[in-house]
Amino acid sequence: MAETTSTVVEPTRRDFLFIATGAAAAVGAAAVVWPFVRSMAPDAATVAAGAPVEVDLSPIAEGQIVKVFWRGKLIFIRNRTPAEIKAAEDVDVATLRDPQPDSARVKPGHAQWLVVYGNCTHLGCVPLGHQGAYEGWFCPCHGSVFDTSGRVRGGPAPINLPIPPYTFTSDTKIVIGQEATA
User: Quick one: DSSP state of residue 104?
Assistant: First the structure.
């Protein structure tokens, strides 16, 4: 029988230097790349500004309009009276500049709540509530008139007050910035 000898190779100083140099290079590369990767993420103020906003509707009286901000934009929330709802539903949609039925501007089962962006679609002014010929909104800057459904009825505004994404989480709470999921 032949004898086999096994020899254990001891690490040399050169092996240690290769490993130490590789580790230092990896740490250095990570230290250089990390600020670039981190700069691509949005800052905390940006993340907070885009977050959905929950609004409690229970303190809003019938006929009252409240203003909230979402993503730096003004939002009107209007608790419409039965007379305002009827007036908005009875409009001949064919006569409107931007034809849209009232039912398309509110959530089913919540016709009393109208949620719209609060800037005139002409030049972005803030219209006054419960004003104008239709008791909706009136823009004093250039004379645009909106009805109780936020639809343009006169003046230079080209389209209706837009509707932000929102959903009802209960009969008295909405979340602006979030659509209902099916």
Answer: G
What residue type is 65 in one-letter code?
A: I
List of E strands, the chain: 53-56, 65-70, 73-79, 113-117, 128-131, 136-138, 145-146, 152-154, 166-170, 173-176
3-state secondary structure 113-150: EEEEECCCCCCCCCCEEEECCCCEEECCCCCCEECCCC
Residue with tokens 């016709």: 111
Q: Are 147 and 138 in contact (CB under 8 A)?
A: no
Report the DSSP beta bridge partners of residue 49. Answer: none
Compute, in degrees rounded to 10, the torsion defined by CA atoms 82, 85, 90, 91: 150
Q: Please tell me the distance from the alpha carbon of residue 110 to that of residue 103, in angstroms, as a whole number.
A: 10
Annotated catalytic residue, options 110, 122, 130, 142: 142
To the query of whether residue 142 is one of the catalytic residues in this protein, the response is yes
Q: Tens digit of pLDDT for each residue in 64-111? A: 999 999 888 999 999 999 999 999 999 999 999 999 999 999 999 999
Tokens of 116: 């719209």
Say which residue the tokens 């509530």 belong to: 129
